[in-house]
Design brief:
There is one protein chain. By secondary structure, the protein is α/β, with parallel strands linked by helices. It folds into 2 domains: 332 residues, 3-Layer(aba) Sandwich (Alkaline Phosphatase, subunit A), CATH 3.40.720.10; 56 residues, no CATH class. The longest helix has 25 residues.
């Protein structure tokens, strides 16, 4: 009888584990939607991500924050920056991340890539170690650049592996090492539900060569960036291929997005229009990012969605997708139904509050839908016809009234959680 009970509970445990899909969330660094073939680019080579879009669901309207730390804080916590953002390079240590929630649901968790959320030693003493250590934010294992120290990120990298810093050689390439660690984790956890969060190092400046570059001495920023995009796609392909080789494709949700717009030193061409990188700006070039979801047998194949997606939506979506109750008090709205081919409850608008360095900058905020955009200072734009926002409109149509109502329902000022001096 005792043996029967053990077998029974092991069987139940296996069934419950099988019902929990693995999740791999990949977020590239400093790359807007204009750099992907599946969004119409003919300039960059992104065949692996394009394949995910072709065999999965591509979203036309996904919006991040304009800069890295604000986006990371938002996507990890499901909250608007107005509620919990306090300083550049800092994730407040009292925050509960998507990794915390999945870890509590018996997921094994891994983060690889760029951290920049502790306040490393090269920042002002005001910010040093005022944020969060990776292994205290719901992750069991990590392989990360820029935790408590800076060091190199590409060739000759300094990486933090499970809490210990390791200096690699001049011929070692950071993104490749991190991807290798992710692949080893996936293979090791093949029989256990796992969550991998991969905030990539690529394609952030400086723009060095990659292992796929024809020359290791090239100094051409644009050409090097083109190859960096291709190598970033190559690494995504390695992960997708390994999942397939291990027979886990139908058990694994793979999400790919970017953290903000492309660096301003880069110019891209999309459908006959030149787009200068908009990182740090509130325009489409700074906030509109690619987003593709892939899970054969669950996520509809070959579909394109016009639904609005905000970075705060990822946490509640992951919760609902794996069968967890959605946390109360979030700013995010789950789009898990859309990932499963259902209509869901799409947003009517998104809200962006942006104040990257509260100790010296002033906040900017807006609400928008797919076409119209209203700022807190009253500027109103038709982004479809004016993507650079050069011509504010002096009209108050139905869209304006709806966005005005939405804006009035949001906080206009954040309470800084670090003690900044008065400006």
């Amino acid at each position: 009888m005792f043996r029967f009970l053990i077998s029974y509970f092991c069987l139940v445990g296996s069934i419950l584990a099988a019902d929990k899909p693995n999740i791999i969330l990949i977020m590239a660094d400093d790359i807007g939607y204009e750099c992907f073939g599946c969004y119409g680019s003919e300039q960059y080579q992104t065949p692996n991500i394009d394949r995910l879009a072709e065999q999965g669901l591509r979203f036309e309207h996904c919006y991040s924050q304009p800069l890295c730390t604000p986006s990371r804080v938002k996507i990890m916590t499901g909250l608007s920056n107005v509620r919990n953002y306090s300083a550049f390079s800092v994730l407040n240590s009292d925050q509960k991340t998507f990794a915390h929630h999945l870890q509590a649901a018996d997921y094994d968790t891994f983060i690889g890539g760029k951290w920049q959320l502790l306040g490393a030693e090269h920042y002002s003493k005001q910010f040093q170690q005022k944020g969060s250590w990776p292994l205290e934010t719901g992750f069991d294992n990590c392989c990360l650049w820029q935790v408590d120290k800076l060091g190199g990120r590409y060739w000759n990298p300094l990486l933090n592996i499970d809490g210990e810093n390791k200096q690699f050689s001049p011929d070692d390439y950071g993104p490749e090492i991190i991807t290798d660690h992710i692949l080893k984790f996936i293979e090791k956890k093949r029989d256990i539900p796992f969550f991998v969060y991969y905030p990539m190092i690529l394609v952030h400046n400086p723009f060095p060569t990659t292992p796929l570059s024809k020359s290791r001495t090239s100094k051409n920023r644009q050409k090097n960036f083109n190859v960096m995009v291709h190598y970033m796609d190559h690494l995504v392909g390695r992960i997708v291929d390994r999942v397939d080789e291990l027979g886990m494709t139908k058990e694994t949700l793979i999400l790919f997005t970017g953290d903000n717009g492309t660096n301003k030193a880069i110019t891209s061409e999309l459908k006959g229009r030149k787009i200068v990188g908009g990182k740090g700006k509130m325009t489409d070039a700074g906030t509109r990012v690619s987003f593709v979801a892939y899970h054969p047998g669950t996520v509809p194949a070959g579909k394109v969605s016009d639904d609005l997606i905000d970075f705060s939506d990822f946490l509640p979506t992951l919760q609902e997708y794996v069968g967890l109750p959605v946390s109360s008090g979030l700013d995010g709205v789950s789009f898990a139904p859309q990932l499963k081919g259902q209509p869901g409850h799409p947003r009517e608008s998104i809200f962006c509050y942006y104040n990257p360095r509260p100790e010296k900058t002033k906040p900017v905020r807006f609400v928008r839908n797919q076409r119209w955009k209203l700022y807190g200072d009253g500027r109103f734009f038709d982004v479809t016809s004016d993507p650079l926002e050069k011509h504010p409109l002096d009209v108050q149509n139905d869209a304006y009234q709806k966005l005005k109502t939405a804006l009035e329902s949001t906080p206009s000022k954040a309470a800084s959680l670090l003690n900044f001096p008065e400006r």
